[in-house]
Design a protein that fits this description.
It comes from Lysobacter niastensis. The chain is mostly beta strands. It is 15% helix and 40% strand. The protein has one domain: Pnp Oxidase, Chain A (Roll). The longest helix has 11 residues.
């Protein structure tokens, strides 16, 4: 009897990058094995231990937003392998708050900073009430601990976000630029609209040595280091040209959410300006939200991921032109 092959989890943007880099055959074999339509028990267990979860969704203008929802450990439950129930909601002033309605496609990332464990889940919101929301799984998969900097909690506050702490920015001011330029970690929401599967939103993590994000006015340039070759984030950018980023000041609890047009640089000489970069991608910020003291937890940096130590900081950037 012929064996039925599971469907490929990759959409057009991801396949295009796989083809470009010569890994298509390998990824067509790997993809169905590691990307599931349910959560394995170890993934469910990790989510239930976390004090926060990173989420991504898309607004009515097609702008993706990345955010974080906090609670006490145990505020996330997994009633079965196909569902997560989050006992918390985004803060007032968070763009994510208006996006969580039944039927909304959503990306979720669980990350345990002190162990560098992380799991990703894409799905859609099935219910929302005054205390939280529930999500049905469409894709679930784990990621290796590459480029995750180890952090430990040093305190947890219970005060609400101060009134008037939400600031809307159309241009990155000096304070926002400094936060981004000093970051060793951020989170990114992207999406694609494959016809057969409907909208897929992905929430991912990026890390490097502090200063790995280059800030030039409203233009952010980010290196793409060697990874798992899934290219979920870059495949989505290739498909839709949009990205939403979340930067956190872990000491002060400030968050900066930005969204805008995104593009990928596969071939220019600018790639050589950063040690370890295989490609570059950029986001031209169109909207930003800053919320001061928004987070309860304060985290202390402990150590760089070994992979991050293999990457350098930005050097002189050559004039952009295509390689021969």
């Amino acid at each position: 009897m012929p064996t039925e092959h599971p469907p490929s989890p990759w959409h057009r943007g991801e396949r295009e990058i796989h083809d470009r880099l010569g890994v298509s055959e390998r990824m067509e074999v790997i993809g169905p094995k590691v990307i599931r339509d349910f959560m394995p028990d170890q993934h469910r267990e990790l989510f239930t231990k976390l004090p926060d979860i990173f989420v991504g969704a898309v607004d009515g203008d097609g702008q993706p937003w990345a955010s974080i929802v906090e609670g006490e450990p145990g505020f996330i439950r997994s009633p079965d392998a196909a569902h997560l129930a989050v006992g918390g909601l985004p803060d007032i002033g968070d763009p994510m708050g208006t996006l969580l309605v039944a039927g909304t496609p959503i990306g979720m990332l669980g990350l345990e900073f002190h162990t560098r464990r992380r799991n990703r889940m894409n799905g859609h919101v099935v219910a929302v009430d005054r205390t939280g929301f529930s999500v049905e799984v469409e894709q679930s998969y784990g990621n290796c601990p590459q480029y995750i900097q180890t952090r430990e909690a040093v305190s947890s506050l219970r005060e609400p976000t101060p009134a008037g702490a939400v600031e809307a920015l159309d241009v990155l001011d000096a304070e926002a630029a400094a936060l981004i330029a000093a970051a060793d970690t951020f989170f990114v929401a992207t999406y694609a609209d494959p016809d057969a599967l409907g909208r897929q939103v992905d929430m991912s993590h990026r890390g490097g040595r502090a200063g790995f994000v280059r800030v030039e006015g409203n233009l952010l340039t980010i290196p793409d280091f060697s990874g798992n070759r899934f290219f979920n984030t870059l495949g989505n950018i290739l498909a839709t040209g949009r990205a939403g980023l979340l930067f956190i000041d872990f000491r002060r609890g400030d968050v900066l959410q930005v969204t805008g047009a995104a593009s990928i640089d596969f071939d220019s000489d600018r790639i050589n300006a950063l040690q370890g970069a295989e490609r570059l991608w950029s986001v031209r910020v169109e909207h930003a939200i800053r919320r001061r003291g928004a987070l309860r937890r304060r985290l202390m940096f402990k150590e760089y991921s070994p992979n991050s130590l293999m990457t350098g900081l930005w050097g002189p950037v050559p004039h952009t032109h295509q390689r021969a």
